């Protein structure tokens, strides 16, 4: 099914390099398909090593002029891009639903969320403050400047095809860095549409480049970024194993890195929680983008006193989901991205059931809807020895685990190498404080399942990575501090 857009020019079929829609000479190409139908959306050139090198070189050349552009000019471009995204909201959301499969309501939410990073960093661009410091020698003064780190390579995943790129591009541009973005080979159209709008917003030539490569050639592109001495920093969002690989590959050029990696988010529901709120919010967290969100609830710990009641209400709500093509009216949840994603959900369910879990909502493929549709599942009697407690499912499986005390549940929650986000539901301030203090995660969300925002410092601890995106801290990852000493000053 081809989609119609108010502005068909938003669909691009070539990379965007140095301010131009680049005519690739590659003899290879790759198909982007609609995960809901399996139908072809577009065929793109699979860029070669030489073309990636050339794109890096041009991004580097652009850096020297760009750093001279005033922060006020950078701020205006960012603000304009925000406005253009909102003007093109419906078209951009349709592109996400087409290439990613999430429902239109989620896609519209994603575009507003992505645009909000440009608005936020349009303001932050003006706030790259330095310090004046008094060193031990009274006749010297130290000044600090925040300077752009240089060329930044942005490697983005499929699950938020617009927002993950926006969350990197906006602070990088605000700081005065030039960027080269490689979108996921399954969902490249949103990034190309962003490049089209950035160009219209006045981003100078070469400051925002998008290269395209197939899923198969992605490791080649990753290696090129990591090994290039012209790229100063890499910002990656994706799984922990790939993050580790990129970090190793970046060692030779000692790059600055931001790693937004996998999660295994626990949700803890205490017996004093507002149950209606907890059920609704746990559902919102668990099934956002059908579970394909890095901060999605992965393990839901429910206090023994309210376990059965919570499980029944949770299951009843899941049964009400309307799964279908994301473009259809009334659909609450679309499809998963590919077969591998479904296989992981099936594996976690099979493992849990073989160890004693019981399905109170039986999940399963919905082949009558299309190749990647899956009815969400809810399991009770889940125990800490099951895979779902240790690995990120990244799909529509609600796993409910019983607990008795806060000390016990804290131990379960922290028993993982991951530490991205955690959720706590309770009315007791002491419990809120205790859990917020001791949960090993970069973000703790209390009494809400939806917390991400451009104003929030987003990022993990442990093997969920490092660096913070968004917020007043987000720009720091794209800057370096230069210290200037003024000597022999006499007053
Ligand atoms: N912390 C966050 O902000 C965040 C946000 C979204 C997703 N994620 C994580 O991402 C994972 C889901 O995404 P995925 O399955 O696509 O992850 P993935 O790591 O397989 O892929 C992520 C991206 O990296 C690319 N990639 C893969 N191998 C590469 C290589 N050798 N060099 C360069 N790029 C390479 C992929 O093509 C994709 O675009 C989950 O673990 C999820 O938690 C984290
Ligand atoms: O998937 C990860 C990002 C989700 C978000 O920023 O809300």
UniProtKB/TrEMBL annotation:
Catalytic activity: succinate semialdehyde + NADP(+) + H2O = succinate + NADPH + 2 H(+); succinate semialdehyde + NAD(+) + H2O = succinate + NADH + 2 H(+)
Signal peptide: none
EC number: 1.2.1.16
Entries under Pfam families matching the protein: Aldedh
SUPFAM superfamilies documented for this protein: ALDH-like (SSF53720)
GO cellular component: cytoplasm
Keyword Ion transport on entry: no
PROSITE patterns, alphabetized: ALDEHYDE_DEHYDR_GLU
Catalytic site: 260
Domain (Aldehyde dehydrogenase): residue spans on this chain: 21-484
GO molecular function, one term: succinate-semialdehyde dehydrogenase (NAD+) activity
Biochemical pathway: Amino-acid degradation; 4-aminobutanoate degradation
Enzyme's top EC category: oxidoreductase
Key words, A-Z: Oxidoreductase
Similarity comment text for this entry: Belongs to the aldehyde dehydrogenase family.
Protein name as it appears in the record: Succinate-semialdehyde dehydrogenase
Annotated source species: Scheffersomyces spartinae
């Amino acid at each position: 099914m081809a989609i119609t857009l108010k502005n068909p020019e938003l669909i691009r079929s070539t990379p965007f390099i140095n301010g131009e829609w680049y005519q690739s000479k590659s003899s290879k190409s790759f198909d982007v398909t609609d995960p809901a139908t399996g139908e072809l959306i577009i065929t793109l050139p699979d860029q070669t090593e030489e073309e990636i090198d050339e794109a890096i070189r041009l991004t580097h050349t652009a850096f020297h002029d760009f750093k001279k552009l005033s922060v006020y000019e950078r701020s205006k471009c960012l603000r304009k891009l925000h406005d253009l995204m909102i003007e093109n909201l419906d078209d951009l959301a349709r592109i996400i639903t087409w290439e990613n499969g999430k429902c239109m309501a989620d896609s519209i939410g994603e575009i507003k969320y992505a645009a909000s990073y440009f608005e936020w960093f349009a303001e932050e661009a003006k706030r790259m403050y330095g310090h004046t410091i008094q060193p031990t020698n009274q006749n010297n003064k130290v000044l600090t400047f925040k300077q752009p780190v240089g060329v930044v390579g942005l490697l983005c995943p499929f699950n938020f095809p617009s927002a993950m790129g926006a969350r990197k591009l906006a602070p990088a541009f605000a700081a005065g860095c030039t960027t080269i973005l490689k979108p996921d080979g399954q969902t490249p159209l949103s990034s190309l549409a962003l490049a089209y709008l950035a160009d219209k917003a006045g981003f100078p030539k070469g400051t925002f480049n998008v290269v395209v490569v197939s899923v198969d050639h992605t490791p080649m592109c990753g290696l090129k970024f990591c090994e290039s001495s012209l790229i100063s920093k890499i910002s990656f969002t994706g799984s922990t194993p790939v993050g580790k690989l990129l970090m190793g590959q970046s060692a030779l050029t000692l790059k600055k890195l931001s790693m937004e990696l996998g999660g295994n988010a626990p949700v803890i529901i205490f017996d004093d929680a507002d149950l209606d709120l907890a059920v609704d919010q746990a559902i919102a967290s668990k099934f956002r983008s059908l579970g394909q969100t890095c901060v999605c609830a992965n393990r839901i710990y429910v206090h023994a006193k309210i376990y059965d009641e919570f499980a029944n209400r949770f299951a009843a709500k899941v049964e009400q989901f309307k799964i279908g093509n994301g473009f259809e009216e009334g659909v609450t949840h679309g499809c998963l991205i590919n077969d591998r994603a479904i296989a992981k959900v099936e594996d976690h369910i099979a493992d849990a059931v073989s160890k004693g879990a019981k399905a109170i909502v039986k999940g399963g493929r919905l082949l009558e809807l299309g190749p990647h549709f899956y009815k969400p599942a809810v399991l009770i009697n889940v125990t800490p020895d099951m895979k779902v407690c240790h690995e990120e499912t990244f799909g529509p499986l609600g796993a409910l685990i019983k607990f008795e005390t806060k000390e016990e549940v804290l131990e379960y929650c922290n028993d993982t190498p991951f530490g991205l986000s955690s959720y706590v539901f309770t009315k007791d301030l002491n419990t809120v404080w205790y859990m917020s203090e001791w949960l090993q995660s970069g973000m703790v969300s209390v009494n809400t399942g939806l917390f991400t925002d451009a104003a929030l410092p987003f990022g993990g601890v442990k093997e969920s990575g490092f660096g913070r995106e968004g917020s007043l801290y987000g720009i720091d990852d794209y800057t370096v501090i230069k210290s200037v000493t003024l000597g022999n000053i006499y007053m």
